[in-house]
Amino acid sequence: MRGPIASGAILLAGMFIFLKFILPMVTAPLPASLIYLYLALTLSGIMIFGTMSASGLESLMGPIFRFLSGKGQSGVGQMARLAVLVLFPLLVGWQTYTRLAPSDLPPAENRTIHPAPPGEFVGLANPYQNNEANINMGKGLYAAYCSPCHGANYDGKGTAAPGFNPPPANFSDPGTIAQLQESYLFWRIKKGGVGLPVEGMPWKSAMPRWEEELSDEFIWKIIMGEYDGAHQSPRTWEEEE
């Protein structure tokens, strides 16, 4: 029978695999900060469950205390303890150094905030008339599906926004959707963050792949509602004089 330490380690590893590799197959990839938060909550649950009784506390923490104190250990155990006490501070120091040390290496790939969409999305036009009925429908759909992240005021300050890095886009900022064509927004909403090419790093989006839940008609009308609600206009091709 596995002890509580082994069971807890297996549970943490399973949670990490699920959040990192399995969940992105059905929705958008989770930000690393959110994955660490869920792992911390899982670890807290393991600690609370394992220390609810005296016997559970002994089963969970007893082996750890005995290992660190060296009580009742043989020569092999003492060597393992010494290796952990030496290597752990070195590992923490190395990780801290590699994160903070300046580097003159170029990026691994070209990066852009707004990568080019696939060819089938280039030049698409909104097929629905820009009238009050369609705009109001789009705003209603936006309120239901988009406002939790992008905000009821289209400012990127929805109730769920603090959980994401990078944060949701602020549509009222003239540097966001005002610089983009409607066809670009259609691609980004339809395919979500998982549809971004590699050059979209490090600005990969956590937005879901809305094509799984929303029809093309709903997406186009959401775009109308976004532009109207944010008091912006989509970028269009400039006609040659």
What do these coordinates show?
The protein contains 8 helices and no strands. With about 240 residues, it is mainly alpha-helical. It folds into 2 domains: about 5-100, no CATH class; about 120-230, Cytochrome c-like domain (Cytochrome Bc1 Complex, Chain D, domain 2, Orthogonal Bundle), CATH 1.10.760.10. The radius of gyration is 25 Å and the shape is elongated. The mean pLDDT is about 85.
What's a concise summary of this model?
Helices cover 51% and strands 0% of the residues.
- Look at the structure and give the mean pLDDT: 85
Query: Whole-Å distance between the termini?
Result: 80 Å
> What is the rounded Rg?
25 Å
Uncertain stretches = none
Corresponding CATH superfamily of the largest domain = Cytochrome c-like domain
Beta fraction = under 5%
What is the number of beta strands? 0
The H-and-E topology, N to C, reads as HHHHHHHH
Q: What structural class results from the helix and strand content?
A: mainly alpha
Count up the helices: 8
Q: How many domains?
A: 2
CATH architecture of the largest domain: Orthogonal Bundle
Largest sheet, if any?
none
Share of helical residues: 40-55%
CATH class annotation of the largest domain: Mainly Alpha
Shape label: elongated
Per CATH, what is the topology of the largest domain?
Answer: Cytochrome Bc1 Complex, Chain D, domain 2
